[in-house]
Amino acid sequence: MRLLVTGGAGYIGSVTTAVLLEAGHDVTVLDDLSTGHRDAVPAGAGFVEADVTDAGRVLAAAPYDGILHFAARSLVGDSVADPAPYWHTNVAGTLALADAARDHAVPRFVFSSTAAVYGDPVTTPITEMAENRPTNPYGAAKLAVDHLLASYARAYGLAAVSLRYFNVAGAYAGLGERHERETHLIPLVLQVAQGRREHITVHGTDWPTPDGTCVRDYIHVADLARAHLLALDAATPRTHEICNLGNGVGFSVRQVIDTARGVTGHTIPAIDGPRRAGDPAILVASAARARTFLGWKPEHPDLVRIIADAWDLQRG
Predict the structure, then answer these.
(1) Residue 2, CB-side half-sphere exposure with 13 Å CA sphere
(2) pLDDT grade, residue 77 (50/70/90)?
(3) Could you write out the three-class secondary structure of 118-158?
(4) 0.85 cut: is pTM over it?
(5) Which one is catalytic: 138, 152, 172, 218?
């Protein structure tokens, strides 16, 4: 298939591009490089430096079989402090992309969504039937796009799939997390092991969890990327499907730190800090829908493997 990957110079987009190329697809990456990196675009992919709102001119140049949409702003705290860019980029930008897909008869659309649409869940593991209660503009904007795609599928025949990620980590094909401002636990812990940070802060030790720290579901980025290939095949015209992507197993902040100590051989000093506002105690996915609809299951669910792959890349 000929595919357009928006945000393909970023972490998940670049890994998915690599997996698509390995599967024999013809891939063009569109990225404005505001947070992505030109050297992260895998060899063999075409590249267009442009905003997602300019995707129409790329789609007009040749017939495309599908779009995989990763281009978005994704920092929860920033979305609260300054929500305007999140509505402009994540909603208005996706609307322009969906219009371009309709205008140029692109049949498939796979959307990078998020567990943030669920907010603070009432029950775990979280299924796709859980109530959507986003607690920040980032999650609200992603949920708005889900509604957008559902309406476009019904009205215009689009075959759309939203993949709601939980915590993505690890590395693949020489590609990994490389953020100017890092906010994710595993790369932050590994920065401590590298000596780039003095310590890791544990945000809250009195949560209602076995060791008092937050529990999260970690998924290997290669498993996540593979789900996008399956979504392209499973997408059905006039239908919008939603799948959670996670391992179905939660690991606490302390478990992540202890595992990273074992992987790296470093002490990784940790200090206790206060809770962060808006943090749920537990976020663990039920991926049963992904198993039945996509035929997907994680191949690398082990936390040691996830952290080891990230460490191997991060230390060069």
Answers:
(1) 10
(2) confident
(3) HCCCCCCCECCCCCCCCCCHHHHHHHHHHHHHHHHHHHHCC
(4) yes
(5) 138
